[in-house]
Amino acid sequence: MRVPMMHLDADIAYAAGPGWQAVELPYKDADLAMRLIVPADDQAPDALLAPDLLAAVTRSLAPVYVRLAMPRFDYGSHIDLVPPMKALGLRTVFEAGADLGGIRPGLRIDGAVQRATITVDEWGTEAAAATGLMSLTSWRPPPTVAVSADVPFAFAITHPPTGVPLFAGIVGDPSDTTGGRQQPPR
After folding, report:
1. Tens digit of each residue's pLDDT (9 = 90 or more) over 44-82
2. Which is it for strands 164-171 and 20-26: parallel, antiparallel or unpaired?
3. Which domains occur in the chain, in start order?
4. Residue 107's pLDDT band (cuts 50, 70, 90)
5. Spatial distance between the Cα atoms of 21 and 100, rounded to a whole number of angstroms
6. 3-class DSSP assignment, residue 125
7. Cβ atoms within 10 Å, residue 172
8. For residue 149, how many other CB atoms are within 10 A of its CB?
9. Where does the chain cross the membrane (predicted)?
10. Whole-prediction pTM value?
11. In sequence order, what are the residues at sequence separation of 6 or more whose Cβ sits closer than 8 angstroms to the Cβ of residue 170?
12. Which of 46, 62, 56 is nearest to 18 (CA)?
């Protein structure tokens, strides 16, 4: 697959395991980072967001000089929160006789949705309404590890001290750089 790529040669956190490679790109002036997890041998990326694998990435990350090639991507999701809210027992707030305290008589919730967007390009990452920029420029010797996200891959914006992912998704078609939204994982 021919994919237009952005390139970075830098000393960054890197990890590898059976069937995957991962890098962590820290955001400047923020306690957040983007992790890219690339499968080996054209494997499907779905399993790359499994909690056990994300924990293995967190445990294994170590600084290495990396030559990274990754596509620009634009990811979005739209999730109807009503079914999971009802499954958790929040049924009455959606009914006509809902009691929502002192807000207003006769008020009920008709819908609840979550929308998230992440755009990654040369200028950084824009996630929902937050923007982070990478600060990774310096001269170093030639890279010792190469990571190329020219196949479907997973990503997560994480809190590195805890390894907790705040946003996660799969780029199913790295060649789609036209601004078309990628699909959330199923």
Report:
1. 888 898 999 999 999 999 999 999 888 887 777 777 777
2. unpaired
3. 6-77+116-171 (2.30.39.10)
4. low
5. 49
6. strand
7. 15
8. 25
9. none
10. 0.65
11. 45, 46, 48, 49, 152, 153, 154, 155, 182, 183, 184, 185
12. 56
DSSP summary character for residue 134? B
**Residue 185 confidence (pLDDT) above 80:** no
Cβ burial 47-79 (10 Å sphere, 16+ → b, else e): ebbeeebbebbbeebeebebebebbbbbbebee
Classify burial at 177, counting beta carbons within 10 Å of its beta carbon; exposed 0-12, middle 13-18, buried 19 or more: middle
Task: Report yes or no: 35 and 147 within 8 Å, Cβ to Cβ.
Answer: no
Other C-beta atoms closer than 10 Å to the C-beta of 183 total 14
- DSSP lists the bridge partners of residue 9 as 67
Outline where DSSP puts E strands in 87-142: 113-121, 124-127, 130-132
Alpha carbon distance, N-terminus to C-terminus of the chain: 23
Q: Buried b vs exposed e over 103-132: b needs ≥16 C-beta within 10 Å?
A: eeeeeeeeeeeeebebbbeeebbebeeeeb
| Structure-token pair, residue 40 | 């080996």
Separation of alpha carbons 184 and 114, rounded Å: 12
Q: For residues 170 and 184, what is the distance between their CA atoms, to the nearest angstrom? A: 7
